[in-house]
Predict the 3D structure of the following.
Amino acid sequence: MSAAPFRLSVRFFAALREQAGCSRLEIETAAATPAELYAELQRRHALVFPATLLRVAVNDGYAEMSTPLAPGDRVVFIPPVAGG
């Protein structure tokens, strides 16, 4: 049985922002974890980074991709940063 959908906010930075075409969005999802949420967002927005290369923050603190999500959470996906 799948979970009931709930609302949360998502922010994208750097290349992910360019790929998604926005820096933030409010989404209705039944994703239980950031990994499930990112897979859903990859399908919706054609995001190309594999989840294994990303960092994620939930409610202003770094988290694991397996962290449980709850209604109203704020999720930030952070792509790898290149510099020199």
